[in-house]
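Submission sheet (multi-component)
Chains listed below:
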Amino acid sequence: MAHPLESIFRPKTIAVIGTSRQEGTIGREILYNLLEFEFNGMVFPVNPKAPVIHSMKCYRSILEIPEDVDLAIIVVPKEHILRAAEECGLKGVKGIVAITAGFKEIGSQGVELERRLLEIVQRYKMRMIGPNCMGVINTEKDYMMNATFASGKPLPGHVAFISQSGALGAAILGHARELRLGISKFVSIGNKADTAADDLLDFLKDDEETRLILLYLENFGNPRRFTKVAKEISRQKPIIAVKSGRTLAGARAASSHTGALAGLDVAADALFEQCGVLRVTSVEELFDLAMAFNSQPIPKGDRVAIITNAGGPAIMATDACVNLGLTLPRLKPETRAKLKKMLPEEASIENPVDMIGSAKEKHYAEALQVVLPDDSIDTLLAIFVPPMVTGSLEVVATINRISKQFAKPVLGCFMGRQDVLQNIESKPGEMIPIYPYPESAVKAIEAMVRYRAWQMKPESSIRTFPVQREKVTLILEQVRQEQRRWLTEGEISEVMAAYAFPLPCSAIVRNVDEALAAIKDIGYPVVLKVTAPGLLHKSDVGGVLVDIRNDRELTQSIHQLSTNMATVKDTYPTYRIIIQQLIKGGRETIMGMALDPGFGPLIMFGLGGIYVEILKDVSFRVNPISELAAREMIESLRAKDLLMGARGEKPVHIDSIIENLQRLSQLVADFDILEQIDINPFIFSEDPAKCFVIDARIAVKLEKAAETKKPAAFQ
Amino acid sequence: MAHPLESIFRPKTIAVIGTSRQEGTIGREILYNLLEFEFNGMVFPVNPKAPVIHSMKCYRSILEIPEDVDLAIIVVPKEHILRAAEECGLKGVKGIVAITAGFKEIGSQGVELERRLLEIVQRYKMRMIGPNCMGVINTEKDYMMNATFASGKPLPGHVAFISQSGALGAAILGHARELRLGISKFVSIGNKADTAADDLLDFLKDDEETRLILLYLENFGNPRRFTKVAKEISRQKPIIAVKSGRTLAGARAASSHTGALAGLDVAADALFEQCGVLRVTSVEELFDLAMAFNSQPIPKGDRVAIITNAGGPAIMATDACVNLGLTLPRLKPETRAKLKKMLPEEASIENPVDMIGSAKEKHYAEALQVVLPDDSIDTLLAIFVPPMVTGSLEVVATINRISKQFAKPVLGCFMGRQDVLQNIESKPGEMIPIYPYPESAVKAIEAMVRYRAWQMKPESSIRTFPVQREKVTLILEQVRQEQRRWLTEGEISEVMAAYAFPLPCSAIVRNVDEALAAIKDIGYPVVLKVTAPGLLHKSDVGGVLVDIRNDRELTQSIHQLSTNMATVKDTYPTYRIIIQQLIKGGRETIMGMALDPGFGPLIMFGLGGIYVEILKDVSFRVNPISELAAREMIESLRAKDLLMGARGEKPVHIDSIIENLQRLSQLVADFDILEQIDINPFIFSEDPAKCFVIDARIAVKLEKAAETKKPAAFQ
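Outcome: structure written.
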């Protein structure tokens, strides 16, 4: 069965509704671009006010067109769009590209208009790109279609580009042309009312012309679907994304560690990381990477050789390599011997190989032929600084020619590239990428190495543990009915136990007698903690006493807690006391879940105490998380050595952390009602039997108007 | 008195020794460039083999020239350079630019040739640029001189450029021309045998034509002089530097924390920070900043307004601003009201002001005129994405014109800049900087804000405390004579006491009786530590016992230490025991000094324990340090909140840290023989009377061959 977006990209007939004969209008430019790019099906202009446009018969309505119409490009003013869409539906149109603006982007009245437009599209089972977009391009030979109002003719090639910003899309198309980056598909997705980036990724997955996908996104429509689709594609076709709006979420208020730390766009970072999308922070970097991925094979490893005719830029390239974690190995003795023979005495045959200023294309050719087969390197960076601006073109051509004899990536850095590029005549994708600065080239190499690591990463599935799900369902249902936000200590213990989190021995008691009875099972030393509905910060009310070693201390302590709670009895009229086995040693960690408004639940892990509070040294993943993702969460901590065994200490039991992260992931996935979880501290030690949840807080989503519900008292 | 480098930059007569008539040779290009750039003094070609070059009489030797010669450009093969230089001396030449290569850069034989060349230069009291350089440019009206072999004609302007790499210098000159960045002076310093960057900075300090200085450096000749000169200039004339070779020093072995952490180029970072030089990491960034500093006033603060015709790039600019710590305030109500009146309904009058795609130059003009006077902003970034490539030039011209009516910096971001720039005719420095990507523009703004902060920083002087310097001199002299590397515990205590570092009460004893006598002054609880010549890691031999509370424990402990030391008596035949007052509470920090081979002593400060070992959270400054520098060292720690008072704890006494850092700085400055100092831990607490040096290690530089000297035994 054909893909639902087939009608958008491969129509046989197109109607341009709202086209115009007036130069400089969008309606005119789109018609012009379609014809200029030689769309080989039929194009029908539609405009009730003009009988002829561009020597073509113009129809007053799409309904008057004597042929079937597959795709309609709508450029009418927003006042007329609903009728235009309705007529498309009646005509049997399958795809719409809605260029018209004035919808969601202008606020509430636009939101309503967009809703009504989408309703029409869905009623007639059409698909729509936009509204508020700048169109679609396909450069496939049989479907050459430039349905945008961008100026200039796209170069055909194998790079697909999806942009949430129309203006940026136009600028990017222009820039791609300058860099001779060939486009397979271009889509300006605008307001994404019907079709978002994930739909398009799904379409591009099987598009043979597309080998590399570039994204400019400001937000995600459906992060879960995006993750799923991107994951399916990204091992075969690299996806490189600019996601802007990174800092806008920062101001969001949050009431837990996990929540507060989840701001600042960690969700998008985590999501891209989890589905193998290479995130870059600027359009410049997007192009730097695209140039390399588009024309070069993926390197087998991180070892880089540099060949240069000038010391300065090679030092800068070396700095960049080392900073980004790439290695510059020594070349093999036989390689060095050959270089020594062919290069002048003043040259350096170390890596970087400095052929000095007198090097001509001949030297580049010989050096590449000697260095590229050396199996101690994976990628070659050729740097050329023209000392007297002669022969640049010849050097570029030579390097490019030799590079094709080997299966390793070769990148060029030419300081003074502008001249060179403007004079190169080559088909897109056939020329090595040429960078004006060494740092850009090295960034591209590093991204390719990172992509290789992603390709090589084993598939890791989501584990499901046997748990007492039904029990938790009942507890959470109870909480929901009572319209409480926070679970009580008792409920939390039951939930944690149901998902087999390791808990210290404990009991909940009301008085000294119950305590003395309970201690027989728990054993000294213990910790006492009060629990009361609505009480979140127990220490603040003197509600925690530690290291109680005998019956006498226990009795005293229970009285002490009673005195302390008496001072706050207006706020917390009833309370209970938790007696908990005292856990000594181990590392304090924090594990939690916070909801991101766009991405849903995020799982967090970090070291406890000052690491989380001052150093913000935590990692996030979008739920659910695989075993591998859990391991990466641990390994991405700056202070991970504290867990892995630093300063001669024994490492904690890492597999226990991984398992408990996955249990948390399962709990979160099982219950949509959960709003936040903070397990803090979660103590891990060398012995898996000595890892314990010491304290935890769990909140559920409240239905609105229930926020002010008073805490229930104990019966 | 004229500056010693006057003869290099402002000669009346120039001889080109080794010039040639052959096209494509360096000797020919330099002569050609001198004439092409219309040097208005006399130029004399010198070449024994040609009677005429370029229609000019050619002399066989500089000695034959009938006029006085101020400056000689030497291009002869290296075999002839000593004779050429000698003849320059005899002729009374004052300055030499030595283009010839084949010196220090090719290894030992070159080093010797360079030494002999320098000897001649110094004997005749000449000054020399190079050797192995590509020349000098001056664009001053009365001294127009292009004595380089770079192609293309430099644009006169107010930017001086000093490059340690000749090839990079040529590429940069070309790039500057493309960006219409006008040059005041250009110097390729080559091997810096006689003249280094600091000499040139000293010259540029009073050069009226130079308002901005750009540096490309690979290393420093004399870091102390560089710091001094750069500091004098940088408040008036911004200095922007690329320092490469950042990672090469990383592999250096080091035997202390301070030393190990001092790798990776922290010295250069510290030095630039201390003298107000703006360090960038690439030539691209160098130009991004130069464009802004060259044409725009320095902003008064960090508040940025963004005006755009497209959402995407404005979001990216916002991200960049927030990430770099700039603020985007709301505009004032009256500004917003005016914008609302002039812009279409769909526009956003928040900051970023989004005038939407229909905005023309008229809208930019109006918006700038309204937003620039708003005193809630300091800098304006104007973004323009041409939706149909019309009117770009007009928009640029308009923004530029309006910007000149206000004293605030205005930067432009035009996606599709290439076209625009190529068609702009303006004098260097008269056009606002235009960036192809928003991130570059924002980086430039951030650098200007940082520069402003540097300009506003109060002068901070180096403090000198009254200390017992003579006492330390005697101790170190003793250590030197015994050819020991490490000071003993006793010596360390005396040194620290002489410079008034706070030490806990302590005594050095040999046995139980002495210990019981000493304890009367110290008081329980105490710590016992063994000390033995050559013993660095006391804990490893069981040589530390803590929290000894009474006479019985003291006696037992001394016996215990005796037993422990018996097991290692072959290595440490004699030892003593230090009894030290036990210090409880406070924050453990580490303070130290390490020698950088290029920069001399660096002062380090950080939090102790895992902060230094795992998180590497430390800061460095080049010695000596001012009070302000000491304060900045504390404030630049990631975990500084632990000192400043985190989680409701009281802050430690910061002024004590500052004072002790300055005392350490003074100690280091007083004694060149010191090689490394590690004060670890140095405990600071809220009460200045409760801050103590707990342990310290001090090493001196050993004369060679003394490394293997055996530790001395106690008498």
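Remark: Residues 587-700 of chain B form a domain with the D-amino Acid Aminotransferase; Chain A, domain 1 fold (CATH 3.30.470.20).
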